[in-house]
Amino acid sequence: MSAPSQGEGEIERVTIAEAAATAARAVDGVVRLQPGLVGLLKQFAAQAWERATGREMPDIAGTEVELRADGTVHVDVRIVTAIDRHTAAVGTAVHTAVTAAVEAATGRVPQVRVRVVEIDLEPTRS
């Protein structure tokens, strides 16, 4: 079996990031995902993605995926939580949801790190 090309690796990375972002956003108490500096710079690469794949770049801001040579997948998710939700419980739920989503997408159990980078001071609306 040959190693994936750089383009195939990027497509896999984005596909995993999309699964992780979708799962994290679905968790009650997550207000939004927050990109870091690298994530902001990667948003500029969206045009290249669209040219290469013919489809819009998925909204993966706030997620970073590393595909290591040993086959492991590492996912970093940066979340903003609601003030009226228990932050630790939200983080745990995001970890569980992202782990399950990435495993379903890849067949591999990822290493997942969830970072709460902000607490939104506006209470959630029911």
CATH topology (level 3) name: Alpha-Beta Plaits
How many extended strands? 4
Please, what is the average pLDDT?
Answer: 87
Radius of gyration: 15 Å
CATH-defined superfamily? Cation efflux protein, cytoplasmic domain
> What would CATH call the class?
Alpha Beta
**Helix-strand pattern, N to C?**
HEHHEEHE
CATH architecture: 2-Layer Sandwich
Low-confidence stretches: none
Helical content stands at 40-55%
Task: Describe the model.
Helices cover 43% and strands 23% of the residues. By secondary structure, the chain is of the alpha+beta class. It has a single domain (6-120), classed as 2-Layer Sandwich (Alpha-Beta Plaits). Strands 1, 2, 3 and 4 form a four-stranded mixed sheet that branches. A hairpin with a 5-residue loop joins β2 (63-67) and β3 (73-82). The longest helix has 20 residues, at 6-25. It starts with 5 loop residues before the first helix and ends in a 6-residue tail after the last strand.
In short:
The protein is α+β, with helices and mostly antiparallel strands and 126 residues long. The protein is built from four helices and four strands, in the order αβααββαβ. It starts with 5 loop residues before the first helix and ends in a 6-residue tail after the last strand.
